[in-house]
From TrEMBL:
It is an enzyme of class 4 (lyase). It comes from Desulfacinum infernum DSM 9756. HAMAP family: MqnA. Gene3D superfamilies: Periplasmic binding protein-like II. This is Chorismate dehydratase. GO terms for biological process: menaquinone biosynthetic process. Pathway: Quinol/quinone metabolism; menaquinone biosynthesis. It catalyses: chorismate = 3-[(1-carboxyvinyl)-oxy]benzoate + H2O. It holds the Pfam family VitK2_biosynth.
Amino acid sequence: MGDERMASLKLGKIAFLNVWPIYFPLEEGWIPHDFEIVARSPAELNELMRRGELDMSVVSSVAYARHPDRMQVLPGLAIACDGPVQSVLLLSRRPVEDLDGREILLTTQSDTSVVLLKVLMQELLKFRRVRYRRGVLGECLTDGAPPTAFLAIGDEALMYRNHPDYPHVWDLAEVWKRWTGHPFVFALWVARRDLLPAERREVERAVCTLWAARSRGLEDLHVICHEAARAGILDHAGLECYYRTFTFDLDSQTLAGLELFFRYMVKIGDIPRMPPLDFVGAEEGKGTAMREKAEEGGRRWVENA
């Protein structure tokens, strides 16, 4: 790629604990990079990428499914789990099987989890009369008319998961796994489709940097847990358990789960058709080579994709 450089790429970061294993090595300088990191909620990152205000970001899986004309997938990276995830929860005062015809409060912070809940309600439980509304969880739980059930994600789910008034808890990823046998992919890393040629070369370099950050973060997870415990949401042992629930790979197994989810999105009418999985570098045959180099490179900065 030579020595050609451009301004820093704007990289979106979910402002939750779940992405620390990838972003902490970048923000602490363990892995050299030129990113300008922008931290927001998943829903906000989805909208920033849709508007083209970020160059790259982790986004909800449904954001890509709804706007494949604006984004390309970065190879090999995802936020996925193959069983319970602990931080995407439906909490209810009543058994979940009694929620048909009742209202569920939905988080304003996520899109993928909301669609997953609707898929499970409509296709697994065959519920057709559930009502949904969006709201700020903290306010709605204390306004004198708390919801019958609510969907919480991320740090809020970790904080509310043992709420005494909501004893019936559905871990959505666990339910998906039991139902389909597949992992669930909550988020992908994507790049703007309309990047200039020079910017696209920087994105190819950035893919390798993110792979190196992920590798380093998982190697030194105990350090990350020590630092993340300062947030006061989970202790060190709880964080170790939490991070082990995730896989940050986009491989054949997670891709199969992702494609199945997209098919259900079509079935419930969320998207009109299956989106193509269009990877950065694939048009030049680089996608596989980039992934191999990133895995092989480990911690080092990979100069050529």
